[in-house]
Amino acid sequence: MKLYLIPLLLLSLLTPLSAKPDVVIKADPNKAASPLEGLWKAVSAHQDEAPLDTEDLATIFMKFQGASVLTTYDEEAVHGVFTYDAKKHRMLITLTMDDEKITIPMIYKLEKDQLTICQFHDFEEMPKKYPDSFKPAEGLVIAKYKRLPIDNRLNGAWETKELWGMGEINEDKYAFVFDKFKLLISDVADPKPEFGYYLTNSKTTPKRIHLYSDDGDLQKGVYKIEKEILHICIIENDSDGTLTDKEGYPKDFVKKGDATYIKLAQKK
After folding, report:
1. What are phi and psi of 122, to 5 degrees?
2. Are residues 164 and 222 part of one domain?
């Protein structure tokens, strides 16, 4: 079944979305941040009148930063821009698909650290019409999110000090740049970067990180920062289920099995 939540737009469109790494949207420093500013994780959702499965909710996030928005679902992350009307509680999100702009009207409700968003199922047929209710009904998609803290300590440039894969040390050196929610990774020997996105969840133990590639690949891992050293562990194939939890995140920072363990130092 296709899903049409804003973070699921890539599933509802007939052709893949194209990322635009060269487009940078800067917020006006003279304007206050929007009330939506921050990182949000889905806690419940309805398509028409049917609730979304817990497993699907686990990968749905939204992050508002200035005039930009990042939405994620499953292994995909989509970057766009948004505007909002605080009096009417309306919002427009605009995404780019093969150089064509797709705009989605919606209404929102903000209650402390809970955000509720509603849009029409067939928003492309009603590009200027807004819903008028947050009650689950035929033709509507409604999602509730909770606010998560943002870990700004990752922002900046980092270089690998240690890299393990398949239980062995790897001598390759990589550079990472974390910029709000954008991610650049490059081989030091060949500095042409790969473009992607990242999100963190610092409310879990250990803290979780999602690394999204430009071509639709997600690596789920855990991270920690100790004495200005960033540690990341990713396990993509835990065949016996001893190294990862039930959601597929590493239980700890390990260098054995199929684990990828990265130790990074921040560039001064």
Report:
1. -100, 60
2. yes
Secondary structure (DSSP) of 141-181: EEEEEEEE---GGG-EEEEEEEEEETTEE----EEEEEETT
For residue 125, the Cα-to-chain-centroid distance in whole angstroms is: 27
Q: Which residue has the tokens 């790969």?
A: 194
Nearest to 153 by CA among 225, 64, 66, 201: 225
The Cα–Cα gap between 201 and 207 comes to 6
The confidence score (pLDDT) of residue 26 equals 41
Q: Using CA atoms, how far apart are residues 193 and 177, in angstroms rounded to an integer?
A: 10
- Residue 62 domain boundaries: 6-148
CA atoms within 13 A on the CB side of 181: 29
CATH, residue 91: 2.40.128.280
pLDDT tens, 140-197?
999 999 999 999 999 999 999 999 998 999 999 999 999 989 999 999 888 788 999 9
Same domain, 42 and 13: yes
- Backbone dihedral region for residue 143 (phi beyond 0: left; psi -120 to 50: alpha; all else: beta): beta
Instruction: Answer with the one of 124, 148, 172 that is the final residue of a domain.
Output: 148
CB 253 within 8 A of CB 224: yes
In this structure, the number of other CB atoms found within 10 A of the CB of residue 133 comes to 10
Find the DSSP H helices in 36-153.
Answer: 54-57
CB-based contacts of 69, cutoff 8 Å, min separation 6: 62, 63, 79, 80, 81, 82, 93
Angle (CA) 207-208-211 rounded to 5° is: 145
State mean pLDDT over 206-210: 97
The residue type found at 216 is G
